[in-house]
Design goal:
Helices cover 52% and strands 20% of the residues. It has helices at 2-27, 37-40, 42-45, 61-77, 84-95, 106-117, 145-167, 171-174, 177-202, 214-227, 241-251, 316-345; strands at residues 51-58, 124-131, 137-144, 230-235, 264-275, 283-295, 300-313. Helix 5 (84-95) packs across helix 6 and helix 11 (241-251) packs parallel to helix 12. It is elongated, with a radius of gyration of 35 Å. The protein starts with a helix and ends in a 5-residue tail after the last helix.
Length: 350
Amino acid sequence: MLKRIVRGNCITSVILLLFAFLIFSCAGNPAARSVPAWVNSVEAVYPRAQYVAATGYASTRSAAENNALAALVSYFGQTVDVETNAISMYQQAVASGVADVWINTAEMRNEIRTSAAMDNIMGVEIREVWFDSRDTYYAVAVMEKNRAARIYSDLVSANQSIITNLINMSPGIENSLDGVVRYRLAAVVADMNIYYRNILRLLDAPAADTMTAGSYYRMEAQNIISTIPINIRVADDRNGRIYGAFARCFADWGFDASSVNARYVLNVNAALNQVNLANNQNYFSRIEISATLTDTAAGTVLLPYNFNTREGHTSLIDAENRAITMAERDIIEEFGSMLSGYLNSLSPVN
């Protein structure tokens, strides 16, 4: 009888120990009972009617957050269509302060500066992060639709004000390089508004059905360019070759470089001289080019250019031709690049 009691107590003790071990194991493994609902189904916590949400996971917290942000941004990227170059130009215009003069209020200016400084979609935040106690972090990126809709609606309104201010100018300004620059900046801002409008549509928020695209303002800028004559005056040209090189640079932009009476004048001096080198039987010729693009109405030099080189050959005429050829090449490449850089960097003025 005594042995049976002892055996029964031992069995009971083993059962109790096993039960306690199971309880301890469950308590010591929070991952087994504390997995957030959004890890398995993001819409269980962030319903689509109210949020745009996406999850990401990785071995580090920062990587998990980045993956979640990338997943959410891809939701918009599949539908929102805007050139990366347009975004970059918009960011540069805002960061440089070019756009400030066309923004109506300080509040608008702050909103636009904030939006331009961000590489991703605005209104997105990492709402929660969870670690599974082993080796993986989970993160959820969330955009509240109503809040985001207010942000992008305000940005569209602010950008539309910029466009209105830019294209509201007198005929004298409009038919000049200043007018060209203003329309081109309006085109960049219009591109961003199309981008923002498409985001609003994905947020199921009200968005304008009709909105002028950037291509319209670019066409207007090009139309102005075609009406702006450039007078190119070259002293000591050889068979019009120097003139032709400069004219090509302006023609690439659509300017009419054949006018005699023009507001914008390019004055060019081309000097070609023989160079004698001691103990050298070849002939050498030096060419020196100096040019200034001037706005005669404002009395200002817009763009200076200088070039010189020395070329040799067995005959003087061939040495001169080589020098002129090098000048033509530099004008097309270097002056052409300078002209493009100048026109692209112009800031709109009142």
